[in-house]
Design a protein that fits this description.
Blueprint lengths: L9 E10 L6 E6 L2 E8 L8 E20 L1 E6 L1 E3 L2 E4 L3 E12 L2 E2 L1 E4 L10 E2 L4 E6 L2 E2 L1 E16 L10 E10 L9
Parallel strand pairs: 1-15
Antiparallel strand pairs: 1-3, 2-4, 4-14, 5-12, 5-15, 6-7, 7-8, 8-9, 8-11, 8-14, 10-12, 12-13
């Protein structure tokens, strides 16, 4: 491993998360709504196959007028089946943790494979459904911590000046209100 110390160029990395709540009954919000890695200097990074940026954490909340089954997806350009595109060559991953619906702890299952635990990882093209005791959970308030992990190939830092890398996407609530009889 060689640590480069003679390259004074900087790289700025920014991740934006835009919001798009699909259920008109509910409002989805992120805090903070934007994650900024700031400037990353090549001389501060050990040359390696990948540069792993520090995990960033933010809070997601959904507030509904009427109870709704809580199901989420993240829509962004896929990097591969396990993450979303960050810049041209990097990727980021999102994981939901410490989720609660109306104060009750819930787990996550894939809407596409409801018999398998998703461990909270949001994957391209997939939705997660909040579950407890093996059943989908309906409620008015969902809160969760979202961990963001980002990695870039070292070559992405080989720029002549400052460059911005972005990962853009939106969370979508894809649930419908639960009929009053339930």
């Amino acid at each position: 491993m060689v640590k480069r110390t003679s390259l004074p160029l900087a790289l700025s990395c920014v991740l934006l998360a835009t919001l798009d709540a699909q259920a008109e009954n509910c409002r989805l919000s992120l805090s903070p709504p934007r994650i900024d890695y700031g400037a990353i200097r090549r001389d501060a990074v050990v040359e390696n196959a990948a540069v792993v940026l520090a995990t960033r954490t933010f809070n997601l909340s959904v507030l509904c007028v009427e109870p709704a089954v809580m199901a989420l997806r993240f829509v962004a350009a896929p990097a591969d089946g396990q993450g979303f595109r960050f810049g041209r060559e990097g990727r980021f991953r999102l994981r939901l943790k410490h989720a609660q619906v109306d104060g009750r702890a819930v787990g996550w299952v894939s809407a596409q494979a409801p018999d398998e635990s998703a461990r909270g990882q949001l994957l391209p093209g997939q939705a997660l459904v909040a579950r407890a005791a093996g059943l989908p959970v309906a409620g008015r308030r969902l809160t969760a911590q979202v961990d963001l992990d980002t990695e870039l190939p070292f070559e992405a830092l080989m720029v002549r000046g400052e460059a911005n890398l972005e990962g853009l996407g939106s969370f979508e609530l894809i649930s419908q209100a639960v009929p009053p009889s339930q």
